[in-house]
Amino acid sequence: MKIGFVGSANTTIGCRPDKTFRLTSYSEKRVLETVKSNLECLKDTITFCIQNNLLFYRIADFIPFLSHKTSIPWETIGSINFDLFTTIGKMIRKSNMRIAMHPGQYTIINSPKEDVVSNSFTELMGNAWILDKLKLDNTAKIQIHVGGVYEDKDEAKNRFMSNFEKLPNNVKKRLVIENDDRLFDLRDCLDISNQIEIPIVFDVFHHSLKNNNESIIEVLGILEDFWSIEDGNPMIDWSHQEPSARIGRHTNTIDLNLFKAFISDIRVNNPDIILEIRDKEKSALKAIRYLQEIGRI
């Protein structure tokens, strides 16, 4: 079992690995400066994670306008930052750390609009290029939601599967889908996975909001079959509701009692867990200390 967090370490590291700027301020010079700064911060963040045994980490977007038509060629970015890519990749591989990426809400490969699908393909290829540039194996995953329903869920599923097959192989080998809290629940994801053999990231919080009464143990027992040795351990996103906030808002900080109950439920399984919690590394450090105390890490 590995555990970690998403993006920037809010208070521990004095930088952000996902800085960007407005398109109106775009210039090649500014893009390259921002990428270099973000990569240097990513290196510091990876160092912090390794030092604290947080060996699962979701990389935030560190290349501004990665899929935009004005984007600098990725190989140019890779060449200019060759040493940083090489160093970060070696750190990740040497520590046996696991990496994930999660493109934003506009990456929708089941959209009926061709331009949205085309832009989504470019975004996914850019994410795969980053993971390939770091020389990470296929346990480093790119997770996305199935997308929109567009008034016909079955057709939306079919469109996702059809477009999935059109993706380059290096993207398909890394792509995983995640159940959401409004449109495509675990049962929908299973329907897709059974047909195109794509692994499912189990989002526990989303499942608590939209489900078919499946227990966590039942879910993990089913999902294990979709994760091959090449894919790595099943991936889980874990969070819970922020008290006194709108339904669906991720918590600001971890409730350790809820986390302990969750870990007890999965005592016979060995997933890798990303905490989607707003105070990020603070909660991850609390969780890792508990897992070390009970001998799960």
SSE diagram, text form:
Layout: E1 3-6, H1 28-51, E2 56-59, H2 74-80, H3 82-94, E3 98-101, H4 114-133, E4 141-145, H5 153-164, H6 169-172, E5 175-178, H7 186-196, E6 200-203, H8 204-209, H9 216-223, E7 235-238, H10 256-265, E8 272-275, H11 281-293
Parallel strand pairs: 1-2, 1-8, 2-3, 3-4, 4-5, 5-6, 6-7, 7-8
Provide a concise account of the structure shown.
The protein contains eleven helices and eight strands.
Molecular structure report:
- The chain is of the alpha/beta class and 297 residues long.
- The protein has a single domain, classed as TIM Barrel (Alpha-Beta Barrel), CATH 3.20.20.
- Helices cover 43% and strands 11% of the residues.
- The chain is built from 11 helices and 8 strands.
- It has an 8-stranded parallel barrel, surrounded by 5 helices.
- Strand 1, helix 1 and strand 2 form a beta-alpha-beta unit.
- The chain is globular.
